[in-house]
């Protein structure tokens, strides 16, 4: 049993046991909590968790192991580390591997036998902040690193999770290839760390995709003659993406725009409005959202710590949906500008599929 320590930037410490990949040096990132129970494989491989230590609030994690690569939201684990109350170490179904083995395979450290309830309460009370995982022998180095480590706003997290070169009609799986051949619409995707399940939802609606990196300009994107521009999810602070914001500004009014999560925040900024960092954000698969026009309420999966400041929205842009818990902005709409964007994840993965109809709403913009 290899004992470890998790220390928050404000000095609060928690003792635990290390699992997964061995800790050879302090492991540091912003700590957030997620209230989901199943779906840890999708959470770990979600590019939006790049640069974060994920604390899962459920009392036991790992019960069904890791299914197969098709459930991954990207090619590998993107979270910096995983913290759980208790790691399941019993039998799992044939053909699967344990969560412990999955972390070892991807050189990711785990931290268990920890008071995750107290950690969650600490974050709720004091806000998300950097934290470091280390052994007692590393304490001096860990505390030095913790005192000087930058915030997520100062780190380019997208460069390691998104495409580096823009790709017109990228090579795809056989199922996606069939959808592409039957495509009824051209969609330009600006990739900030897109999830595989989002791509699947676009392909299964018979879309032909061209994928652009965050440095792409409006001229390059418009040369692909898209019917719709989709802005993906991704990690980090939207205000750090100045070039993308200028590109989106130039696209507004020239082509329909839609976005999810970070993409929604970038649309907010491109419209001239502001975003703000929430105290601890929304991370989980049980966030209720209400359509302010129809009164329809449904449950969503979410993973964000930045949000739209509705008091700064320009005329002609309306709040489409709100979070039923705290009334924060969950979606924007502008019929005149042909814009729709959502803060939540309509694809779930993990989580409910109640919001999958949002993809159909996006595609309606181009008709």
TrEMBL record:
Coiled-coil annotated residue ranges, if any: none
Reactions accelerated catalytically: L-glutamine + H2O = L-glutamate + NH4(+); hydrogencarbonate + L-glutamine + 2 ATP + H2O = carbamoyl phosphate + L-glutamate + 2 ADP + phosphate + 2 H(+)
GO molecular function: ATP binding; carbamoyl-phosphate synthase (glutamine-hydrolyzing) activity
Residue ranges annotated for the Carbamoyl-phosphate synthase small subunit N-terminal domain, each copy included: 2-134
CDD domains: GATase1_CPSase (cd01744)
Region (CPSase): 1-185
UniProt pathway annotation: Pyrimidine metabolism; UMP biosynthesis via de novo pathway; (S)-dihydroorotate from bicarbonate: step 1/3; Amino-acid biosynthesis; L-arginine biosynthesis; carbamoyl phosphate from bicarbonate: step 1/1
Keyword terms of this UniProt record: Amino-acid biosynthesis, Arginine biosynthesis, ATP-binding, Glutamine amidotransferase, Ligase, Nucleotide-binding, Pyrimidine biosynthesis
Tree of life domain: Bacteria
Any one GO BP annotation for this protein: L-arginine biosynthetic process
Entry EC no(s): 6.3.5.5
Record-linked SUPFAM superfamilies: Carbamoyl phosphate synthetase, small subunit N-terminal domain, Class I glutamine amidotransferase-like
Enzyme active site: 261 (nucleophile), 345, 347
Pfam families: CPSase_sm_chain (PF00988), GATase (PF00117)
Residues reported to bind L-glutamine: 48, 234, 236, 262, 265, 303, 306
Enzyme class: ligase
Biological role: Small subunit of the glutamine-dependent carbamoyl phosphate synthetase (CPSase). CPSase catalyzes the formation of carbamoyl phosphate from the ammonia moiety of glutamine, carbonate, and phosphate donated by ATP, constituting the first step of 2 biosynthetic pathways, one leading to arginine and/or urea and the other to pyrimidine nucleotides. The small subunit (glutamine amidotransferase) binds and cleaves glutamine to supply the large subunit with the substrate ammonia.
HAMAP family: CPSase_S_chain (MF_01209)
Subunit details: Composed of two chains; the small (or glutamine) chain promotes the hydrolysis of glutamine to ammonia, which is used by the large (or ammonia) chain to synthesize carbamoyl phosphate. Tetramer of heterodimers (alpha,beta)4.
Family stated for the protein in its record: Belongs to the CarA family.
Protein name (Swiss-Prot/TrEMBL): Carbamoyl phosphate synthase small chain
Species of provenance: Candidatus Ornithospirochaeta avicola
């Amino acid at each position: 049993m290899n004992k470890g320590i998790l220390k928050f930037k404000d000095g609060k410490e928690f003792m635990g046991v290390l699992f997964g990949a061995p800790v050879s040096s302090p492991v540091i990132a912003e700590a957030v909590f997620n209230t989901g129970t199943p779906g840890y494989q999708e959470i770990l491989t979600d590019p939006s968790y790049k640069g974060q230590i994920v604390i899962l609030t459920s009392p036991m994690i790992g019960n069904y192991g890791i299914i197969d690569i098709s459930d991954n939201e990207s090619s590998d684990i993107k979270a910096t580390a995983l913290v759980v109350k208790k790691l399941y170490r019993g039998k799992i179904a044939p053909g699967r591997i344990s969560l412990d083995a999955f972390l070892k395979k991807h050189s990711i450290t785990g931290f268990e036998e920890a008071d995750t309830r107290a950690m969650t309460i600490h974050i709720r009370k004091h806000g998300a902040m950097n934290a470091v995982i280390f052994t007692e022998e590393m304490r001096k180095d860990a505390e030095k690193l913790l005192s000087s480590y930058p915030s997520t706003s100062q780190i380019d997290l997208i460069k390691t999770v998104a495409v580096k070169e823009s790709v017109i009609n990228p090579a795809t799986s056989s199922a996606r290839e069939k959808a592409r051949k039957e495509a009824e619409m051209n969609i330009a995707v600006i990739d900030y760390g897109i999830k595989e399940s989002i791509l699947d939802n676009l392909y299964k609606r018979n879309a032909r995709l061209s994928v652009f990196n965050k440095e792409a300009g409006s001229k390059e994107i418009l040369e692909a003659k898209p019917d719709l521009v989709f802005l993906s999810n991704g990690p980090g602070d939207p205000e750090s993406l100045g070039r993308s914001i200028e590109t989106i500004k130039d696209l507004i009014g020239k082509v329909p725009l839609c976005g999810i999560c970070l993409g929604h925040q970038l649309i907010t900024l491109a419209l001239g409005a502001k975003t703000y960092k929430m105290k601890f954000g929304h991370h989980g698969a049980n966030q209720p959202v209400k359509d302010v026009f129809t009164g329809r309420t449904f449950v969503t999966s979410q993973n964000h710590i930045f949000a739209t400041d509705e008091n700064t929205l320009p005329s002609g842009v309306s709040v489409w949906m709100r979070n039923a818990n705290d009334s924060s902005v969950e979606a924007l709409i502008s019929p005149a500008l042909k814009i729709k964007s959502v803060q939540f994840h309509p694809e779930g993965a993990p989580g409910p599929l109640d919001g999958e109809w949002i993809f159909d709403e996006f595609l309606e913009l181009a008709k």
